[in-house]
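pinging the channel bc i need a second pair of eyes. not urgent but kinda urgent?? the chain im working w is below, pasted from the shared doc
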Amino acid sequence: TAYVEHFEDAFAEFYASVHRFESVKIRNGAKFFATLLSERAMPWSILELVAISEQETTSSSRIFLKFLFQELVEHMGVDLLRDTLFDRELESYVAGMFPNEDIAHVRFAVNFFTSIGLGALTDKMRERLRKL
């Protein structure tokens, strides 16, 4: 649709500048983008912009991601969210959020998702940690 490109641009701009926003604006932005994602008004491939590691995130971006994922769970439920995120078609787009190479990044991502109550999304990463 005509708006998809604008939604993608808005997400990219918001995420890049999230460190300048107060928590209310971060929460509202997360709610907005979670609604767009869950309703498929914006493609999930936009998540390729997100990498969860200590080096790639700021406290503000982690707050945004926390709110985003919590809203997605509210809209979709954790099972559908997990199925969506780990769909083979999205694998390359979510690789930055669910790393499997660098042990420090894997550990950081596991800790992040566990701390926001979404440890259920970390099963594959936990398995990878056991093998490393």
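so The mean pLDDT is 95. and The helical segments are 4-16, 23-38, 59-76, 78-85, 103-115, 123-131. — does that match what u expected or am i reading it wrong
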